[in-house]
Amino acid sequence: MKYRIEISGRGGEVVIGKVKREFYDLFNDDDTELDIEDYVWNYDFFEENEDVEIPEDIRPFVPGEWYECDDVAHECGVSVDNAYVTVTVGDTVVIDNVEANELEKGESGLTLESESEIVPDEVLEDGDTYIQIQSHEKGLFHSFEFEADEFDLDKLTLCVTNVDGWEIITGAKYNDEELEDLGELSTDGKGSDAWLDIVEKN
To answer: In angstroms, rounded to a whole number, what is the distance separating the alpha carbons of residues 169 and 179?
Structure first.
């Protein structure tokens, strides 16, 4: 039988990328009053700020194309603390939109497995400057299908990636076999964040 798993809830997309120190300094200069979130999200940033000069060789990405600045991290998924699981086979609902944390409790249940952790201060060098951008969304993040004679919750593993403290589900396995995401992302934007930072190890 072909089973279908959907994972929905609140989560989002996050990217972390290195930027040049000149870019970092420009947006942290009180005299310029530049807004990094305006640069990140506004495709018309330069049209609306004609007096602003940012040399092309220090721009980490074209305004609005933030998703390209991802040489440190780029992940998309639903937050572990707000993930809901639905399992169906044909028209039959096996699990109906139940919190992943609830399905993990007890002697029998799914597994939340930490796959990787990305911490800028550990990945980058002392003094490196970087940008972190988060798009917060709500809706369907992941969908998977697999063949099995019957569904066993104990064989379901949700793979978790920790991006600088934000734990998001980024994949799934069934019976230790990685499942391919069907790519049926369907979410609505609920907010965003963007900030520049510097690595200070000493």
So the answer is: 13
